[in-house]
Amino acid sequence: MTNKIRVFASVLALTVSLSALSACSSGNNGGNGPGASASNDPGAAVDAKDTITALLPPVSANYQSNFDQMETDFNKLYPNLTLQIEPASWEDITQKLDTQVNAGSPPDIAFIGSDGISKYVEQGMLMDITAEATSDIIGDFDPVPLDYMKNGSGLYGFPAYMSIHALGGNKQFLEEAGIDWKSVQQNGWTYGEFREAIKMGVVSSGGATSRYGFVFATSGVTAKDYLNILIKNAGMPAAFDKDLKYAYTSQNYLGVLKAVRELIDDGSMPKELSSVDAGKRWNMFLTGQTMITGKGLATFENSAKTNNKKIEAADGAVEGSIPVDYVVLPVPTFAGADPVASAAVDGYVTFRGKKEPTEEHKANVAKAAYFLASGKIAATTNTELLVEQITDSGRAAAESLTVERDPDNAAASQRLQSIASPARPDIPAELGAEAIKLEDEVIIPKFQALLADEITPEEMFEALKKAAVEAFGEDGVVTE
């Protein structure tokens, strides 16, 4: 991408090392914070004081420890503006945000997944910053991740990163099982090939399994990840097809549900899969209890290397862990579908309250969201996460940062990024919100029951089809 001359070059000079500050959502939504101006005079907006609030989780290892510096640097860049950051955990950010949204006073900015945008658009609680996003700002972002922050004609924030959800393998175990992992990285694999491969990774003795071929976290905040990653590779990259018909009533969806049960019934995955959360999944991988794990994030390579160093130093390693060379692997494809990488585009989504925000406040929120999503903040965060930079300003700032990455893994990640599922801003907010409701109320609980062998794949599929028809009508769902 060609370098651009930017009026915001000062952003690139900012340093980003911050510390936790707990702050309630104060002068947001309507620009009614301390000293906020209600004037519509553009000249008055330059010096009018305003406070912008942000609810932010631990995006990367050192992200939350840098909050104080972030607030300070933003105030130096905009002396009339104050950035107030409220920290949240990954486990409680959705509850915190929804509580504030329901009270009509959300933060100005919240770090959430782009897949939640339609829900809040439908509730009328997001701030469209299309008019505030200048051509220089828009030009800084790669188009694909930026599109994820859109719904219809509106732009509702800026992306922080595009993270590919892949699988992760133990190189030693893969090679012992005779799996050509380099070929898989380069060419992918079908479900049939994957199924046979993970059988080879199982180690059992006397009816007890000491190592599984594959383990995926399916409990807690990861409850929907497994299924969502698989179905993208079964010809359903989004909940709606191009004709805006609900896609998960396709027979391919049933095929994926059957595959999930097969992998457990084969003994390649634990029968207790429904109780495996993200922490247990990673612990099982580091302690050699599984050959392949999911979902695999790029940063897991760093996490494995860090634990390896702790093992070598006999200081602080995960109890019972073994040295692991982490291998990035693609998700298998189903039913002859083209491979599609599951892309998580998270970022700084802009909110509003019940009152109409002033033009000055909207402009200030856009400045804060861009400040967080670009330059050294983006460079530092994405380098820690081992994900690709998605802004020109982030790439420029990252030139001075050291990244240690296995070249095979880097190439595999770049390949997956090239086939990432595209954004679907064409899906109307009301349809997207209804799909989220269907996921929360039907898919997740039924999937947990399927994992626990309490219902069959056919029973889950029929329940989903019935609910989908009730939600979208007979003509609003895919029929085969």
UniProtKB/TrEMBL annotation:
SUPFAM superfamilies: Periplasmic binding protein-like II (SSF53850). It comes from the Bacteria. Keywords: Signal. Residues 1-22 form the signal peptide. Pfam families: SBP_bac_1 (PF01547). This is Extracellular solute-binding protein.
